[in-house]
Amino acid sequence: MLNSKTTALRTGAAFLCMLVITACMVIEGDRHHFETEEEENENWYHNISRDSWAWQGADPEVIERVLARIASSKNARRDPNLLDSVKDYGPGHWVFEWETAGDQVLDFARKAEQTGETARARKLFFEASSYYTTASYPHLKNDALAMRALNKARLSYQAGGRLLEVPLQTVRIRHGQHAFNAYLHLPKGPGPHPLVVQSMGSDVVKEQALGVFSRHLAPRGIAMLSIDMPGIGESGAFPLTASSDILHVAAVRAMRRHPSVDGDRIAVMGASFGGHPAARILFRKELSLAGSVSICGPLDSAFLMEEDDYAKLPEMTLDAVKDRLGFSKEVAWEQFSERFRSFSLAQQGIYGQSAETPLLVVTTHADPVAPLSDLKPLVQAARNSHTVILYEQGHCPDKDVRYAVAADWLTDLFSRL
Amino acid sequence: MLNSKTTALRTGAAFLCMLVITACMVIEGDRHHFETEEEENENWYHNISRDSWAWQGADPEVIERVLARIASSKNARRDPNLLDSVKDYGPGHWVFEWETAGDQVLDFARKAEQTGETARARKLFFEASSYYTTASYPHLKNDALAMRALNKARLSYQAGGRLLEVPLQTVRIRHGQHAFNAYLHLPKGPGPHPLVVQSMGSDVVKEQALGVFSRHLAPRGIAMLSIDMPGIGESGAFPLTASSDILHVAAVRAMRRHPSVDGDRIAVMGASFGGHPAARILFRKELSLAGSVSICGPLDSAFLMEEDDYAKLPEMTLDAVKDRLGFSKEVAWEQFSERFRSFSLAQQGIYGQSAETPLLVVTTHADPVAPLSDLKPLVQAARNSHTVILYEQGHCPDKDVRYAVAADWLTDLFSRL
């Protein structure tokens, strides 16, 4: 119908950009709730991510109840401007309130399991796990309360995982002097199955990725190994360094020997900081990966920021990144920035090589952390790449959209092998 | 990682738009092949859509060979500036060359079928069908040669369909004084299956949609009924009017009685002009549709164009639209525009109602036919809507991306019913 592709393109870049301006103003009007969310976030240390939490299995009513309990607490706060900075573990304290929500749902889950209501028990175990991961968020290793909550998240996740149609397997993978645990989710059927090794952002743990498998990969018969990035969760013993993909490499090698996995059909997928190793691993020719999906990953410019930009970053974001890198909160800018700069794939000289491994990039048009300009050298070096750009505000595309696109791309990729 | 959503949003609309400008200039550089394609299209009456043809099953080498034969023909042309305007049916003639390519592959397909190579035969039948639909494109009803090629496309498609794991069913559906044929593709398994009634643009026929089913719907266990829009193909007896969704309504009603279809889980999906009925049908409360997916559909502004814009549209686009509306090539602007204006959903007063039926919109950020501004009244009237915008040039998002997103949305929708 009215295929005016030609007509529109004839007018060239200038016209296109004018159109974009008009469009984004229209959209601005439609998305007023973003601003409300933003204003709300100013009063919190943590990012208030209702959509992500609900996607992970949390009950929206519980979310509101817990946030209200924290916000209305009369107890002393570390920072009077931050609602979620109640100092003492107890009512109003971030970890306490989310952990309590988790404990309550865990109790229901156990009762449901005892009475043989398997589907209900499974759902509740994963729901409890979601409250525990929010309790431990951003998962700082020196926060004993958070670490205890994160351990509860693992136990709940594993309890839910035992009740899946194909029970969850916890796999222990050795790398160097240490080992880390990973979750292997298998689809139905005899196998061996194609596999995706997946990891997420620098403040997201492997217990938060079930939806990637259950909603998107399992229906296509693709297995998922969910791992923690170096420096977080059960990969906390490994500091996050410029070689961000070392654990992914170890995971791919380990999975090649797994009887339920088709060793010729293993891909890697990562979102946010997880998009960095997913891009980096593309250039490890000896690994013979089937493909990689890099979603809104910071590749270069985010690591090359100046001290001014650094000072403007939210406190929690910085706390999380410092923790992943093995720095204390008080690390000096010079020390931090030197290490941080080393993550730039361009500065690492990675793009001097070319890669034949198929690459899918999924991102948004104006991501503050993963700007489109960072993609240019990557897609030039990756000879077989496909880029999908969502017209969406903020950092990272909508989860269901990005994993739908990724899962179909992977299905097609694996069907050719 | 570096969740700067807050930071970026704080800067507001102006900053966002600046980012967009930068981004689209960068992208311009990457997409230089678009311009090449555009320049090439100036020399052709037909849109040269290599990607779409290949997606449909055509062999890229055959595409180039046929285009070269047409372009290098020494025979007399209707318009010396249009390579594909050779007048006489024979070497160099658009229909002749594509039809010949189809005949050759059809011959291979039959031989493969005779020797029991079912998978190869199936692939070749669909490949032949793709050359025949390109031969008949844009499927003008008064072009006897095109109509003969389109009939061959149907026969090849049906021959391929008989060899599918679940054989294709051709369903005859009555509406008013006439009837139309539709293709029912069922997924594996006992059923009854959820179903999507799908249609495409004003110059695309139901034989061109197999990939929607085989690549995206079948793996999720969703059936597809592929229909021709009014005014095209086997729905040619019905003129395309402002009530663009009449055949979709008839199809939904007919499918409710089909033993392999779950009558409570029927949705509609349409792309390009097919996005118009997919939006319109949302407001037919009595139909109790499960949901609708409207992809880059013209809703309003495209129908309200002025004579100047009309004069700038490519000849083939206009020929196709006039044919669908039942007009001759020579129809006067006044007569055409009066009818065309009646398609505007805003002018039809449709948005005075509200709709509860779930709606998914998938579109691009700067579609010349489906601008984002057209969406505003639609998503305001549709109380349960979700919009996914791809950052992509031209009319309509990449097929595999849009159907991946749509299929996962439908899977989720059907799982709740």
From TrEMBL, chains A, B:
Keyword Transit peptide recorded: no
GO molecular function: hydrolase activity
InterPro entries membership: AB_hydrolase_fold (IPR029058), FrsA-like (IPR010520), FrsA_esterase (IPR050261)
Full protein name: Esterase FrsA
Any matching Pfam family: FrsA-like
Keyword Hydrolase tagged: yes
Gene3D superfamilies for this protein: alpha/beta hydrolase
Upper lineage: Bacteria, Pseudomonadati, Pseudomonadota, Alphaproteobacteria, Rhodospirillales
Keyword terms of this UniProt record: Hydrolase
